[in-house]
Amino acid sequence: MNKIVEFIFLFSLIASVLAACGNNETDGEQKEITIGYFPNINHVAGMVAEEKNLYAETLPDGTKVNYQYFPDGSAFMTALETGEIEGGLVGPGPAMNHFVSGAKVNIVAAGSTGGTVIMARNNAGIETPDDLAGKTFISPRVGCTHDVQFEAQMKEEYNLTSDRVNGEMKHVTGKPATYHSMFTSGKIDAATVPEPWASVIEAEGSGEVLIDTSEVAWGESLPAAVFVTSQDLTKNNPELVQHIVDGHKKATEFIQENPEEAKTIAIDKINEITDQKLSKSVIDNAWKRIDFTYNIEADVLQDFSNASYDLAFLKEKPDLKGLVDKSFIE
């Protein structure tokens, strides 16, 4: 009988060890997460959270936090939908476009507002937005936040559209960190630019501001970055989502209370990711165009998404009901 009892005990012990090794959760707690963001100044909350290890203060003890950096919103959203990351910062354009296409995602906080600037290359013959007819402009991605802001304004105020819809402006895409060199080489004439790359162009003297942030469509009200996670997490593991959002809120509050240290973190992190060292003066200039906040307004997103539909980036008129979940920041 003693041998039987010993056998049962040993079998149970082995089974429990195997169960613990077979997944990333213990007693319902996920022990490893990955957060994503871009090397843009609108995403400084991600950089600060990583550098100051702020998620360790809000997640259960022992949770490992990894970080992944993305070049554009499409790559980020694909990683989120496939479970490669648990959440992070992305532009509202990709988040909304994927949502209306059927992706099960939630925006649970904002990351920042502002920071989009329309720049014109020196000697491109562009004095006013009317001069953009026949010119080549660049954005990070087709239908990204900055692209929609630019094209919506051009259509509404200047009756100009891109060649994507048989319009007068030629559209190309590329990484914002390369825009200065593309201005210098003459490959592009204008750009819809997220900071700090607009300030880089200004500092290097390859282009000038055509439309500043305050005058760009939804320039100061539209989130430049939103914090996104999956509906699977918000529904089935709201405690984890709350821990993550609390860490994001700590990072945002740190930026608000310690702007100079946050700027240093941004300079170092952008250099690490892009191998481009930005000057303090560039960051100072870019900082003036951005408001770091985690508050989010669904009405602004719906208005922006309607414009995306009007520009034919979306095939159906969007209904964003269910996209924004403010319960984690209230």
UniProtKB/TrEMBL annotation:
One of its GO terms (cellular component) is periplasmic space. Its main location: membrane. Residues 1-19 form the signal peptide. It comes from Virgibacillus massiliensis. It is found in: Cell inner membrane; Periplasm. The keyword Secreted does not apply. The lineage of its organism: Bacteria, Bacillati, Bacillota, Bacilli, Bacillales. This is Putative aliphatic sulfonates-binding protein. PANTHER family: ALIPHATIC SULFONATES-BINDING PROTEIN-RELATED (PTHR30024), TAURINE-BINDING PERIPLASMIC PROTEIN (PTHR30024:SF47). GO terms for molecular function: ATPase-coupled transmembrane transporter activity. SUPFAM superfamilies: Periplasmic binding protein-like II. Belongs to the bacterial solute-binding protein SsuA/TauA family. It comes from the Bacteria. The keyword Transport applies. Keywords: Cell inner membrane, Cell membrane, Membrane, Signal, Transport. InterPro entries: ABC_SsuA_sub-bd (IPR010067), NrtA/CpmA_ABC-bd_dom (IPR044527).
